[in-house]
């Protein structure tokens, strides 16, 4: 039996050519089967790859299913059909305990806001996934991350004593501390001002460039998407376009085009 | 507005379920108490009142008994149909073990007659040579109809008689007798009272007046049956009322625990609804409307819970009466409208009072709070509360310290008790600050040692110290009471034991009556002395007497002992030599304001008193003789008849015991035991009383446990988002459950420890103020404390079951609510 934080790391075969995350024919349907009026198709047969050491942004209008995609990829939600591979491990068939271990050891998360535990200090929040796994942090790596977020002097503070931007940088550090296969960020700058947003996005960018991380970020801000290597455009539960080496302007143009098509 | 609130109430049934249970249990306790005492009064009323007697004529205490000639004269009063003499005399019912039953034999025998005094419940009327037994005594003696039983009579005679029947008894004022002889002559031809039955239509008052003319008013009392019935009724009501009052005391404690739970629940409900309340204020609800809405909500809740509580209470009351009913057949079940009314009259106001502070706080929500994303109150300052608590504790400590002496007057005793209560209340006020002071360091240590579940659980338990304190207060009150009485009980028990140990040598063989406080036969001491191997046999003559000192008189106890006998009072001042005067318990001396060298007068009975000088003080103890005097000063007529215990020693203790046992083998009125037996007997009844108290305080602890469940469940709901994040970053379900369990156990253990400490302290103060012992001379009830600690951990684990399950099932996506 696999209990609590005692589960071993989910073993997988990985080679440099396998993508960090890979989804095939992913569908997610809300509402019960028979009557088609109450059915909502959030994901419609999505097949997508997220290569290693790349920063991918997912954009789309609200209700397009981009957050659902992120949740299914991250093992927070179960797809109705299709497979998700995280670093070569198929996740949709895992038990809750194994899925929990996968999230803890091989996936990092950054949510929109308010996702630090108020009773823990910044440092304790950062090392929480390791703590849950019963592991000790790699001090050299932890130092790099902490210097990266620039909050060394505030590690002993509780979240309530930190600004929103600082909290979100702590959350980013928490996502990276386990050296995960992939970091999923769901509108990480949604609740932040532009200066704090730039800090957070800059840190995510550097984690890809300097630490070799893989980041998948859902956003609706073209300026945020411009930090990515690649932008996937999402509408009605499907990938409807892609842009590499984006700039804010190009992303905005593409969004306008999509809305035209939509209308 | 109101509708919005009530809808809200309905929408959150789960949240209020535990509050509902807390009020329901408290109300049920009150109603049960009421139903039981009502039924007890109704039962006595229905059974004990005799209608057959018109007038009674009875002897005035201690005077000569009525003669057959007087009876016959009374019978000739016009309008009297018959006059029967009723006699009561010594009858010792011997049980299957060959020893007397526990009923006092002195007036336990009477003659059978056909009046309404007796109601046969089995068998038939006893013929001469037979007896009928009171059914309760028969059960204790292990006798049924058809058995033969030995009955001791006065002067050491005894009869063997067949038990013809079993009866229940309707007394006027007397203790129901155990034995009714078929042959009334067994008790002699004198009567305790004469009962006159009137002819139909006769004037009862005229008969009473005629009877008064016939008898000497100094020696006889004449009363009508109606008056006696009314008096019996008043006594029945009194006893029901006093048992109701003592039970209601326990019910009040249960309700108090309920109030803490309710107050805490409402405080959390209001906190969780801050945004909703602010929205109401923003769209134009006045403060008063918001406050009243919360109060109405509390009222509705109280009303629902009271309804459930009344139903449960009636059910429990009737169930309780039905299961204990075998002792007294035909219990009248009585559910008065008052009992139902009392249920509502406690449940609704208690809930509303408990919710009032929260209602005020709700009214104080600023409309702008609706716009804030994190809808919560700024943490309220604990300063005022802590100052109040600190002042109460300080005042209490001063009151206790200033009354540390052992020789306290009544006022000083009250001051000491008041000090104890002040400290207790102060600790309740200080509970949040103490929670911070105690749990944070403990939490740090546990965090360093334990895993992530421990760390999270401990942190959460100190997160809101006000809430932790409120949750634990109910537990603390219940446990403190249990521990206080346990401490008092254990101190009294150990002092009784050590007092007996100091007074009675371990090797002494003790001879006593099987009936409490009943004198032994006049031959017992001499017979013990004549047993071979006995070198020293002496007696205790334990008596309830009055003492007069400096013109004021009070009740006390004394014993006349042989100087140089086996009994040696534990002397703390002066001498223990009773030949020189009285040796008095030090606390008794303090209570009557007497010192060494003072003269006191002991009043043994209205015609006998002994004046003596206090020459020594001993370590007195309630339940043991307070005044020891020389046997030589006792009037000759009392020397032999007042022996209550005989103590015998000799060079070979085992031979002494065997010899004495052989000598009294066939004596039902004598039991042979030793010092341990005396100690056991002295402490046994007391232990039983304590166990009963623990059971009654248990209700408060059960309510408090529901309070813990409630707080945890509401906390888990408040923390849904946090738990979702935890799950998302990799906390497994078992880890979430463990964290909640740790939180629960920490909260319960804190409440438990606080309760135990306060309880022991208060127990020591009670022991000091009520029993006149030194404050430090208390003994710690280790078993109860151990049981309480284990119990708290169990309560903690059980209380966490449901909230932990809920928490571990938190839907991650819904919790983090990103879309």
UniProtKB/TrEMBL annotation, chain B:
| Domain (MacB-like periplasmic core) ranges | 17-213, 468-662
Leader peptide range in chain numbering: none
Q: Which UniProt keywords apply?
A: Cell membrane, Membrane, Transmembrane, Transmembrane helix
Q: Which InterPro entries match?
A: ABC3_permease_C (IPR003838), MacB_PCD (IPR025857), Macrolide_Exporter_MacB (IPR050250)
Q: Which Pfam families match?
A: FtsX, MacB_PCD
The regions listed as transmembrane in this protein's record are 16-36, 247-271, 292-319, 339-357, 382-402, 414-439, 469-489, 692-717, 742-764, 784-802
Q: Does the keyword Plastid apply?
A: no
- What range(s) does the ABC3 transporter permease C-terminal domain occupy? 250-364, 696-811
PANTHER family linked: ABC TRANSPORTER PERMEASE YTRF, MEMBRANE COMPONENT OF TRANSPORTER-RELATED
Q: Which family does it belong to?
A: Belongs to the ABC-4 integral membrane protein family.
Q: Could you identify this protein by its name?
A: ABC transporter permease
Q: What is the source species?
A: Kibdelosporangium persicum
Which lineage do the record's taxonomy fields give for this organism? Bacteria, Bacillati, Actinomycetota, Actinomycetes, Pseudonocardiales
